[in-house]
Amino acid sequence: IVLYFLQGLPLGLSLIALPAWLAEAGAPPLEVGAFVGIAFLPWSTKLFNGLIMDRYAFQPMGRRRGWILLAHVFMIAALIVMAITSPGAEDIALLSALCFTLNLCGTFNDVAVDGMAVDIVPEHERTAINSMMFASQVAGMAVCSFIAGQTLASGGVATTALILTAVIVCA
Fold this sequence. Notes:
The chain has 7 helices and no strands. It has 171 residues and is mainly α. The model has no long low-confidence stretch (mean pLDDT 93).
């Protein structure tokens, strides 16, 4: 459930908070739409992520744990780069690249956690577990959207990225 909550962070940031912030800052609708499209694009690659994970695994950690850890490390790295560069509303290309990276990490986390759940959860419990995981992802989106919306309005992109980094590290 915690891992699915963390998947909601890139979604809440790139699909709700940042587009609203960009629009409020005067970015043209075409650029905001392109930002959302680029940021959300990695979610269409989940099939390929599964193929990559099934082929390559760090066996001492199991088939999926290494991928989850790697996804979180790259999420943290992308957020730190976002905090350091502190892109403004005029830097949509950089924001798009960073959010693309965050969502790519989210998709690898998603596929790895799904695969791990199939491996360890008894079949008769999968429906309930899947419902809880999805609800946790939506909760992560909601929490991130709220936090990011508040901090983007008052502290900017750097503060938002550092807070989200802290959430991932603490989880």
